[in-house]
Batch of 4 targets.
Target 1
Amino acid sequence: MNTMTPSRLHWPSLTAGLVLMLAGTAYPLVFAHADGRADHGLALLLFWAMSAGFVRGVGFIPRRRALRLLLSGWACLAALAWGALSLAIRTF
């Protein structure tokens, strides 16, 4: 018998995931350097934030502790902030 309570949508995380998905689709050069080469570090951070945003945003909470930490709303925020800092440092 499953005693876990169902979780609900987490709108901030879901919104972050959707915005990252739409921004990356509409303007994929955000994942690239000025010369057109892919910025794999930035892409990793933004894809991690997007994935964590979708997972937590739809209300799924993994049972395993490591996945619960990596795909949490806080992980989404941390990866997004780290990616924004990386992008800000790259542009200045």
Target 2
Amino acid sequence: MADSELALLLARIQFAFTVSFHFIFPAFSIGLASYLAVLEGLWLFTKREVFLNLFKYWLKIFAIAFAMGVVSGIVMSYQFGTNWSVFSDRAGPVIGPLMAYEVLTAFFLEAGFLGVMLFGMNRVGPKLHFAATLMVAIGTFISAFWILSVNSWMQTPQGHILADNGQFMPGESWLPIIFNPSFPYRLVHTVLAAYLTTALVVGGVGAWHLLRDRANEGARIMFSMAMWMAAIVAPIQAVVGDFHGLNTLKHQPIKIAAMEGHFESYPEGRAPLILFGIPDQEAATVHGAVKIPNASSIILNHDLDAPLKGLDSVDRSEWPPVPIVFWSFRIMVGLGLLMVALGALSLYARWRKRLYDWPLLHRFALAMGPAGFVAVIAGWVTTEVGRQPYTVYGLMRTADSVSPLGAPAVATSLVAFVVIYFAVFGVGTWYLIKLMGHAPHAGEPGVEEGPDRPIRTAGITPAPSVNPDRSLHPTEPAK
């Protein structure tokens, strides 16, 4: 392998590694911010202290997850200038402003209200604090909006013009760029995935504590809310995924062919659905394929006789890494089906009035706790690896996007990233799990509280904004 090819491979591995670490934190914090807003709203509406206790319980977890997401995102963005400078130069006039809009409209909104959300419950009125929580939740959604618009333009580019120097320039309007063909489907699919990811974590934590103490009121409420989310959103996600698949078939048929393992085309339709097998890209076949006759045509085209393009419809140089796309797609779909099953089982348990005393359901929910993270990473791999060999689909190849770096330089930074990420984010993840391991209880301490400083908002009465004894240092860190 030539030095340039090795440098390209290492740069791709490095970006995949860092973005995988980054992706799991926003996928969690987007859903958790909305969950916190719901909990605080329920506390204000019902005045039940259990909702306040759950809010403070999950707020500590949100603060750490949000911080790790910000840090990992900042580090990741530098690679556009170090490893992918050619891509940044050519696509920068389009993606640069969109990413700047994310900072101006989302990150500033989150940063402006995050301090109030984390440390202001003793200093502002409950309604103003709730407004701050809502602003943070809205900010996380706006952030997803802009980032997914950028990524979707790279998948289905439109609205740009190609300058003489090879740069992609915005056309007469930004609207076609922002609302490109795959963006609406990708946005809904990703945000629902974030909500499901959070619901599975909350449900898993609730299940863990129910297995230890079925009478814990906080564990019962968080488990019930999470199971409602799984029961309602998981089937909706399956429908959204179907629409997203139809859109991908229209605009990226080769990606769909790789996902389905269709090396050959079916000009008369009636394509089988390959459930499992071992894709062999060199031999252009799937060994040991387990198939359902005609099912792929029905699922993809909703028409038994509609033609379906296979990988043989384009040159091999246009093929993505088929085995990776094939299996990552099946991991995502398989976990999605398990989420639907968990939601259905919870409805059955609710009907039988055994939601809180059925250990089988609780163990199932506990095992599914990390499933959302695995599913979103598998979905990301399917989307991004399936786009290969392009960074801007059909217009700019990945091999033409990389910086002119030597393989040793990229390898050194990759090793540094691996060591530092596992050390820093490993400790952070361990601490998150430790926080989740303690059961929610009455008088749950908040982020801003020390052991000698109980919060004074029970009954929704705001505390004085100034502490006469600690005017310069009004709070102590939570211990």
Target 3
Amino acid sequence: MLKLEKRHSLASSTAESQPWWVPWPDDKLLDLPMCHLEVSLASPFLSSLIHQLYSELESNHLKFRPHFWLSNEWFTPDGVPGIAIPFYLSHPRLMKLELAQMLEVEGGTNEWCMRILRHEAGHAIENAYRTRRLRSRQQIFGRSSEPYPTYYRPRPYSRSFVRHLDVWYAQSHPDEDFAETFAVWLTPGATWADRYKGWPVIRKLQYMDELMRGLSDVAPAVTSKETVDPLDTMKKTLREHYERKRSHYRIERTSFFDPDLKRLFSDESGPISAARFLNRFRREVRRKVAGWTGEYQYTIDLVLEDMIQRCRQLNLRLQGPEEQAKLDFTILLTVHTMNYLRSGRHKVAV
């Protein structure tokens, strides 16, 4: 998820210029200090998308251009008109490691990365023009001084917020609401006027359109190139980084889904244990539920692991047709994931 808080030559696609650690196995690479990665923003993947963001800003007659740097995650520091990009997006080998450690690569596709870049650009442009001070902005979106929640309870069917990033992120805080609304407004061909017609959120989009038109060809008030937690200052190893990251996304372990598991499976004799059956399509169901809920795959896998362990402890076995059981379990996992999201037990990094 997105967290808000306050070097060498790039390895090209040719084998000769690749960083020395590219052929290393994961276990060896994980012991490398992050500051020794020697990667940059000049990778074909990142440079093309940054250029695309600049083009979108230019097409809307905005003079603002955020600056970028590599860090440990996505964020835009308070008061800084720039954006930190996670280091793993700078090289395919690091994307592969991120996938192995976290089960997915946040921002790892062109579309996904652009969604995040537009969102973070919303924060950066607020810093650049100090729009949080505007009374009209406060009336429409709320005050930035409101404390960020440790937990929040999303309202999936609310029409008072745009839908851009996953987990109904606009609902978490007024600043996220602004950034998400800006991202929808900036997206080329988004046709937001038609998509959100009749929704209360259209007022926010119309305000955003008016605000950005007022900033047309206006130079930013804040032009600092400050960076926060740049990659080349991070001395912790990749192993330490991922241990902390996985711990951050870990959720409370519970066994409240036992009754549902007992209804789906049986403690009587059957052709295959429920635990073995679930392990067969673990990756498939995890990806499907992630697509439906917008939840991080690592978190879903923890819930799934609890379910598999409970099936094993309860000696549950498959009784009916496999395809039907597969569908029923996918729905069951989705329901319990949504329960976490809606009940407030799900922790969102903000």
Target 4
Amino acid sequence: MSNGRLPQLFYIGPWVFDIDTAQALITATPRDTHAIDVAAWATAYGLAQLDNPNPWATSLIGPAHNALNRDYAMARDLKRPLIVAQIVTPDQAPAPLLIDGMHRLYRAFREGVPQLPAHLLTVAETQQIKAQR
């Protein structure tokens, strides 16, 4: 990138999501934010159990217990909206996927913040920023 910063990418399973392009889409097509339930999303992404001392506790879609920088997380700006993509499931129903803001979600959960703002991408926008690994 021309500003000397590495591109921001989110990897999950066979996909990679381009967060910089997602930000550009949001900037080009402003939209309202949606409030997400922090406890529900933190539980779904395994963040509620992340600090469990049991080394066998793990999440299927969130970070491993040693993969999230807690100091970095606790310094993130909770006013900055998360980004939620919409992936198409095998039955063709869109399903939400948090692609930007895991550290903010962790901080909000740890601090007992009930909701965070999030930008929701459309299925078409998600297709634009998603690629195979």
